[in-house]
């Protein structure tokens, strides 16, 4: 379950961000190492109409706030949802998006960071301290990604078993192929944060006019 920090996402080029939310939002729920599993299973927004209030709040298209926001959800369904649907618990559009929203509320990343005293602003944090705080909060290792060169925190991923129980996020064998984000983020690209550099957790960005 990938969360992204909208303020950092807005620093990536080729977007029309406007007033990004200052809370962590959903990027997507991604099964490992597969994408575009069923090209004939087309996204149908009416299937998730009951979820629309939560979708708009917690799963907005941060990069393209002036466009039809359903394009982002369509992308996530086409690329990841059709693969996740091999699990009975996720085998419809309503189940896939609904379960992602449930998991987002269950892990409550925004509250956990605040409780640990980690707040966005002008402060720099040690990545090791951030990781330790999150491991204490959840009992598992998360994957934290930053936008270089100033190591701006951008994405935090929670990993789950097929039963949707939290587990440690471990590196896939064969390097960092699994690191790619599920959305083309302009020329900027997130990568696993450098433990030795101070990490910036920005509050607002000048680029989102």
TrEMBL record:
Annotated Gene3D superfamilies: Ribonuclease T2-like
One Gene Ontology MF term: hydrolase activity
Keyword terms, alphabetized: Disulfide bond, Endonuclease, Endoplasmic reticulum, Glycoprotein, Hydrolase, Lyase, Lysosome, Nuclease, Secreted
Residue numbers annotated as active site: 27, 76, 80
Record flagged with keyword Zinc-finger: no
Superkingdom assignment: Eukaryota
GO biological process: RNA catabolic process
Substrates-to-products reaction catalysed: a guanylyl-uridine-RNA = a 3'-end 2',3'-cyclophospho-GMP-RNA + a 5'-end dephospho-uridine-RNA; an adenylyl-uridine-RNA = a 3'-end 2',3'-cyclophospho-AMP-RNA + a 5'-end dephospho-uridine-RNA
One GO cellular component term: extracellular region
Entry's localization field: Endoplasmic reticulum lumen; Lysosome lumen; Secreted
Family of this protein: Belongs to the RNase T2 family.
Entry protein name: Ribonuclease T2
Organism (species): Nothoprocta perdicaria
